[in-house]
């Protein structure tokens, strides 16, 4: 005897089976997107790798792949959700019409959100900055920790995290794009030997370039450029060099340390501003005023002499 299911139970089991298949396909699609997107982005950006360093190209690949992956996962989630609603018997035609009307209303009310997404798209396409860069946007400077189509997450030197909507980015200043600059002002006293200071700076730049720790960070050794200006405290010397991205602060810190030691050994003085505090004098007493006698003086005047006034 063959067991036959009722039409209602058969329909329920069929729906459950289709829902299970949809969920399996959703999980498989998510895994496929996570594994395939980095390869697709790497292949599409390979033509631009010639103009970028390997580190820069890797940072751009990671940023673009993450944004594309999250966007596709959002689209996949939307499609899976609508499909599941259809399998559960929900009439999608009114729902889609309502979503369309809601979308038009949100389009008028969420213009800022649309602006954020459009700006984020251009930031990615024009490669203005990516994850791992140090930038200044919307008046905030810091390390880019995350980037998507809507907002950029920065962490400053104090560890504070800033969430900046991409629509607020009018000017993006990237301190670590392709290469970074050592830009250092060194002030020496007016009685210092500028030629000796120049030789010391150039020698230290070459030493840093040959250093096993700092040498790999340097593209062009720091060197004496010019006497930049004559300030009220001393002679300002401009020192320039080129480093790999985000390494300029490490190189400048070590260069300052070595300059302090070398200048002290060669008797080159670094001027310091000295401040002298002058207190105003006490104001003189007003003219024509008569000071009242103190109680002690008044008591002495009133006390009779000890001999009773006899002379």
Key structural traits:
3-stranded antiparallel beta sheet, Alpha-Beta Plaits, 311 residues, 7 helices, single chain, Helix Hairpins, alpha+beta, 5-stranded antiparallel beta sheet
Structure report:
This protein is α+β, with helices and mostly antiparallel strands. Among the domains are: 103 residues, Helix Hairpins (Orthogonal Bundle), CATH 1.10.287; 86 residues, Alpha-Beta Plaits. Helices cover 48% and strands 18% of the residues. The protein contains seven helices and eight strands; from the N terminus they run ααααββββββαββαα. The strands form two sheets. A five-stranded antiparallel β-sheet has the order 4-3-2-1-5. The protein has a three-stranded antiparallel β-sheet with strand order 6-8-7. The protein is elongated. The N and C termini lie far apart (158 Å). The model has no long low-confidence stretch (mean pLDDT 81).
Low-confidence parts: none
Classification by helices and strands = alpha+beta
Mean model confidence by pLDDT = 81
Using the CA coordinates, give the radius of gyration: 38 Å
CATH topology of the domain at 7-109: Helix Hairpins
Strand content: 15-25%
Q: What CATH architecture of the domain at 7-109 do you see?
A: Orthogonal Bundle
Physical arrangement of strands within the biggest beta sheet: 4-3-2-1-5
């Amino acid at each position: 005897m063959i067991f036959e299911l009722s039409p209602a139970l058969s329909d329920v089991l069929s729906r459950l089976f289709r829902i299970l298949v949809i969920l399996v396909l959703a999980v498989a699609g998510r895994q496929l997107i996570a594994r395939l997107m980095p390869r697709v982005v790497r292949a599409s950006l390979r033509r631009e790798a010639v103009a970028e360093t390997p580190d820069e190209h890797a940072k751009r690949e990671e940023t673009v792949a993450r944004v594309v992956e999250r966007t596709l996962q959002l689209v996949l989630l939307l499609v899976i959700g609508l499909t599941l609603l259809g399998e559960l018997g929900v009439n999608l035609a009114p729902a889609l019409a309502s979503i369309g009307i809601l979308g038009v209303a949100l389009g008028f009310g969420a213009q800022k959100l649309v602006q954020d997404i459009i700006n984020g798209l251009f930031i990615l396409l024009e490669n203005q900055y990516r994850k791992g860069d140090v930038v200044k946007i919307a008046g905030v400077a810091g390390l880019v920790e995350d980037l998507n189509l809507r907002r950029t997450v920065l962490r400053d030197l104090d560890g504070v995290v800033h969430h900046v909507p991409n629509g607020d980015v009018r000017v993006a200043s990237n301190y670590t794009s392709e290469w970074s600059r050592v830009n250092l002002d060194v002030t020496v006293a007016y009685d210092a030997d500028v030629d000796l200071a120049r030789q010391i700076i150039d020698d230290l730049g070459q030493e840093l370039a040959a250093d096993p720790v700092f040498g790999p960070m340097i593209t062009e050794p720091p060197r004496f450029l010019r006497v930049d200006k004559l300030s009220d405290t001393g002679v300002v010397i401009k020192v320039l060099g080129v480093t790999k991205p985000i390494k300029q602060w490490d190189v400048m810190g070590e260069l300052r340390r070595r300059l302090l030691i070398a200048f002290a050994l060669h008797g080159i003085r670094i001027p310091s501003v000295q401040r002298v505090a002058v207190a105003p004098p006490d104001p003189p007493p007003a003219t024509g005023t008569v000071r009242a006698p103190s109680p002690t003086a008044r008591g002495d005047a009133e006390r009779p002499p000890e001999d009773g006034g006899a002379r």
